[in-house]
């Protein structure tokens, strides 16, 4: 027994530990198989140490056999643990497929559609050369062409003023009340996210201890508003062409009055700008080979690195409103998947 204990002590204190990449723990084959190579480097040195070959006595034979049996048991244990690891990965994939069903495929479809549209618009072969499009003619009208224009053309997270976008108006659309064209700003778009689960995520598979999966769910909220949106169409032939323009912007709608009226114009209503609001929930599954009491940080949690300047935040802050005259000094964290403008 003392000989066996001495062999075990020397193995655990002299065999070099095997280092592997983090992602190798979640792939097949198991990197634990490579530990066996480090152990075999010590086998011949320890099994036949202080023995004569051929054996001169029974004591040398028994001593070598005990050591040899120890290493064989060690290899069997390594193979067994490695097999458990490979089996665990296979069962984990099956369980996740049963739990999530087609959720991931659906998410890919949701994201794939917009990406395909962007690819087509950026591809010179499919991108339209002219902003003006054509409609099929009808028995009542000649060929019809139409053109859509928006201000600003590209929505961004930065405010714009009348110097950059002449269509920018103050609240109510009264441009006469502006003493400086740069005093009025327009917030074209607001975006933010909310980590509804919280750090480090919801544990999907706390079993077995060799593998761990966490689920994060992010609410993405996007809002936007055009300062001016118009669609122009014309029909006819080169000798006779008629044109009509449809405009949407935040302003009052007035009509000219007859000369005998008390006022030159009569307000008959108001028009609203075209705006949009969209929310998307994105589930993210993070694998980790560590099993910690409060969860293991994911690969995207860059704040956990000392050399990273990324803060640990559960959400982003956004303006309280979009459109004309935004209050950019007052920002709040989004809640329940909505920007402060809707909260």
From TrEMBL:
Q: Which InterPro entries match?
A: DUF7286
Q: What residue spans carry the region label Disordered?
A: 322-343
Concerning Pfam families, the annotation shows: DUF7286
Q: What is this protein called?
A: Uncharacterized protein
């Amino acid at each position: 027994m003392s000989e066996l204990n001495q062999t075990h002590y020397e193995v655990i204190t002299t065999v070099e530990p095997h280092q592997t990449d983090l992602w190798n723990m979640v792939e097949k084959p198991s990197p634990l198989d490579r530990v066996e190579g480090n152990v075999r480097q010590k086998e011949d040195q320890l099994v036949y140490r202080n023995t004569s070959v051929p054996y001169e006595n029974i004591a040398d034979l028994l001593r070598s056999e005990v050591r040899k049996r120890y290493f064989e048991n060690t290899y069997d244990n390594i193979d067994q643990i490695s097999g458990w690891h490979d089996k665990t990965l296979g069962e984990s994939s099956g369980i996740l497929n049963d739990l999530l069903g087609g959720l991931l495929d659906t998410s890919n479809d949701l994201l794939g559609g917009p990406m395909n549209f962007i690819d087509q618009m950026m591809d010179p072969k499919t991108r339209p050369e002219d902003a003006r499009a054509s409609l099929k003619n009808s028995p009542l009208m000649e060929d019809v062409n139409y053109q859509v224009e928006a201000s600003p053309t590209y929505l961004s997270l930065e405010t714009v003023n009348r110097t950059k976008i002449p269509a920018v108006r103050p609240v109510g659309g009264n441009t006469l009340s502006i003493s400086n064209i740069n005093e009025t700003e327009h917030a074209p778009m607001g975006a933010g996210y909310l980590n509804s689960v919280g750090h480090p995520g919801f544990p999907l598979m706390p079993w077995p201890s060799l593998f761990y999966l966490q689920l994060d769910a992010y609410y993405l909220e996007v809002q936007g508003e055009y300062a001016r949106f118009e669609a122009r169409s014309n029909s006819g032939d080169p000798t006779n062409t008629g044109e009509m323009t449809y405009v949407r912007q935040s302003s009052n709608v007035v009509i000219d009055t007859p000369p005998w009226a008390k006022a030159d114009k009569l307000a008959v209503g108001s028009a609203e700008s075209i705006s949009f609001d969209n929310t998307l929930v994105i589930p993210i599954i993070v694998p980790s080979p560590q099993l910690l009491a409060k969860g293991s940080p994911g690969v995207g949690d860059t704040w956990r690195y000392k050399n990273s300047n990324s803060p640990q935040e559960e959400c982003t802050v956004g303006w309280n409103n979009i459109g004309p005259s935004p209050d950019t000094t007052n920002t709040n964290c989004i809640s329940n998947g909505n920007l402060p403008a809707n909260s």
